[in-house]
Write a structure and sequence with these properties.
The chain is an alpha+beta fold. 35% of the residues lie in helices and 14% in strands. The protein has a domain of 88 residues: Double Stranded RNA Binding Domain. The protein has a three-stranded antiparallel sheet, covered by helices on one side. Helix 1 crosses helix 2. The longest helix is centred in the middle third of the chain and has 20 residues.
């Protein structure tokens, strides 16, 4: 499976199995295994180390403690469409992990923004001071 121009996941690393889908489907739902269970072992894959680390650091309930990504596709009524959907979701997840996020650098507020903030606080303080009791 082609993820990007440089990264390809071999089919041998992806384990697909057909299971019975939940939910609506009429009389067919109890007979046909149309849902797809996709299992992808992140640690044993041929992905770059940085990509593996980003995938494992995701707070995603589909990734087990052992580092196995499990995707259950049952959106469609046919096995072929569910297989394509599962592979598409895997590709999207891996492609997102390939992108390295820019490190955030803290910046100082400008002098004018500090002055504007302090002026606002002073103005609010004066307004609140006027709310005191009125004496006769």
């Amino acid at each position: 499976m082609q993820v990007s121009s440089t990264i390809i996941i071999p089919d041998s690393e992806i384990d697909l199995s057909a299971i019975r889908a939940q939910g609506a489907g009429g009389q067919n739902v109890n007979k046909v295994s149309s849902a797809i269970h996709l299992r992808f072992d992140i640690n044993a894959s041929s992905l770059p180390v940085a990509c593996k680390q980003r995938l494992l650091q995701l707070r995603d309930q589909r990734i087990s403690k052992e580092g196995v990504l499990i995707i259950k596709a049952q959106r469609f009524r046919t096995q072929e469409k569910n297989r394509d959907d599962a592979l598409l979701r895997l590709r999207a997840l891996v492609a997102a992990a390939l992108v390295q996020k820019k490190a955030r650098r803290a910046s100082k507020p400008t002098r004018s923004s500090q002055k504007k903030r302090m002026d606002g606080k002073t103005r609010d303080g004066r307004t609140k001071a006027l709310r005191g009791k009125v004496f006769d």
